[in-house]
Amino acid sequence: MRVIDHIIHSKHTAFSFEILPPLKGNSIQKVYNVIDKLREFDPKYINITSHHSEYIYKTLSDGSYQRVNIRKRPGSVAIASAIQNKYGITAVPHIICKGFTKEETEYALIDLNFLGVYDLLLLRGDVKTLDVTKETNLYHEYATELQKQVNNFNKGIAIDGSTFEANETPFSYGMACYPEKHEEAPNMESDIYYAKMKQENGADYLVTQMFFDNEKYYLFVDRCRNAGITVPIIPGIKPIVFKNQLNVLPKVFRSDIPEVLANELRKCSNDDDAKTVGVEWCIEQCRELIAHGVPSLHFYSFMATDSVYKVAKNIY
Prior knowledge:
This protein is α/β, with parallel strands linked by helices. 42% of the residues lie in helices and 17% in strands. A nine-stranded parallel sheet has the order 9-8-7-6-5-2-1-11-10, with helices on both faces.
């Protein structure tokens, strides 16, 4: 069953979460351990993040430097297939345009089709650690451009313009949205304009960047509906687990921390205290969202599996 079908037809607020591929050299069992812990809450789908290659500079014997391209984590294609085949749960690999060429994306789509993985999350990806000297014509600049490539692939059109027999099962996908505005957007109206473009070009649903203030989510959804955006807008939820996230999360993700929550975190003397506060806040946040009628809750579980478990135990 497709993600959009799970979202629309679930009798209760659907539960889903995101996992991070293990570091190179680590077993996939680490991924399975996370799934096994959260499986009791009947996850309707599991997202697998994707990470581009990174560059390091290696010192050579003559004192010069050599730039080396490294990949620290396995790709989401293989992990998505492993999860879907082992658990029978819909797997949703992230397909990103930053750090992956158009050709690499096409190969990923070919592999996913062969493996029977037909749900995707299309994202721009992090631009902060990329090599700015890369040939820009080889890469998509924005997620909406990546979206066009997937749409063409569904029609049987390759990136070089040649045609092939289209997939019997086309890819369906969700995309990102930002209740507190994308950091590069000039204003919220611009953000909503592009969110609507994603819908018009085929996105089945939108999933939000993490947020901690439900009122901002409600306001964002209202503005989207007034603009003609009708697809489900799934709340992205992240329980705070470290005391320093009071400052880190607003800086990295541009997510405001409500003063009531910030005040409680300032009182914490260590990370264990902060984790307790984070779970309590997240439980109440999710209960309110469920009462508000959201179709699904999507949890960002990286370094927060235990907290997500505690939250889910209280709300599902």
